[in-house]
Amino acid sequence: EDKKRLSYAQKLDVAEHSVARRLLETAIAKQTNLIASADVMTTAELLDLADKVGPHIVALKTHIDIITDFDPDSTILPLKDLAAKHNFMLMEDRKFADIGNTQELQFSYGIYKISNWADFVTSQVIGGYDSLNCFRNVGVVAILGMSSKGTLTDAAYQAEALKVAQSHPNVIGGVSQKQIPEELLLFTPGVSIAETGDGKGQQYNTPEKVFADLQTDFIIVGRGIYKADHPEAAALNYKIAGWNAYTASL
Ligand code: 5BU
């Protein structure tokens, strides 16, 4: 039998970080735990997807360096408008993995200026505790474990990574394929209703499985949505599946 988990409302009661609070409030208000991963290559596709799936998601996850025609005015400004229009947050999946000084530069400078627009970012914790100090105004989702076949994030690594994540005030949660302590929000990619893998190492689980087995908080879905014939309908489908799986795990 599945263990009981804390509800989003119970997590909101104890959450301190403003980004964690907004995520939980948005999940409750929109009845969704879905994060759509917008791994598309043009600004037009990104904005089109964001407008279509916006009503059904708690956050849109970007890999902004995949966009071939990135421009702060024509990519980021309209994206921020869509985030406000549909009330979703922006998660940049940058997976920082360097020393603090370099991460600080990558976070705020270069052409993407992530600190100007992302509500929260992903980061490896391989650089150690101090490497996360630069993410002052955003939430950090620490990469604890990966979904891909053969990942080196074994149990020993995850235990050490978790210690960094739990002790750092900028960290709001972790990405993992394992259950993590309930004071951290759990984000789980590698979710698909129809597929079990992609032939390139990705491994998928269903929304039901990740809520029942991991008590995850947020599911991250990329190709299951943006490659669908009708991304809006697919997003609604994942939203409903994710929400039903969440309520069933309460
Ligand atoms: P997919 O199309 O649903 O397979 O996309 C999954 C997304 O989640 C993609 O942007 C990956 O970079 C991201 N991801 C992942 O799949 N697995 C992981 O362990 C981590 C991130 Br960390």
Summarize this structure as a short list of keywords or feature phrases.
250 residues, alpha/beta, 9 helices, 39% helix, binds 5-bromo-uridine-5'-monophosphate, Orotate phosphoribosyltransferase, EC 2.4.2.10, pyrimidine biosynthesis
Give a description of the structure:
44% of the residues are buried. Helix 1 packs antiparallel against helix 2 (18-30). By secondary structure, this protein is an alpha/beta fold. Helix 4 (72-86) links the parallel strand 2 and strand 3 (89-96). The model has no long low-confidence stretch (mean pLDDT 97). Helices cover 39% and strands 16% of the residues. The N and C termini lie close together (12 Å). The structure holds 5-bromo-uridine-5'-monophosphate.
Query: Could you state the oligomeric state of the chains shown?
Result: single chain
Report the portion of residues in β strands.
Answer: 15-25%
Major sheet strand order: 1-2-3-4-5-6-7-8
Order of H and E elements? HHEHEHEHEEHEEHEHH
Helix content: 25-40%
Shape category: globular
**Count, helices:** 9
Helix-strand makeup class: alpha/beta
First-last Cα distance: 12 Å
Family: In the N-terminal section; belongs to the purine/pyrimidine phosphoribosyltransferase family. In the C-terminal section; belongs to the OMP decarboxylase family.
EC number: 2.4.2.10
Function: Catalyzes the decarboxylation of orotidine 5'-monophosphate (OMP) to uridine 5'-monophosphate (UMP).
Pathway: Pyrimidine metabolism; UMP biosynthesis via de novo pathway; UMP from orotate: step 2/2; Pyrimidine metabolism; UMP biosynthesis via de novo pathway; UMP from orotate: step 1/2
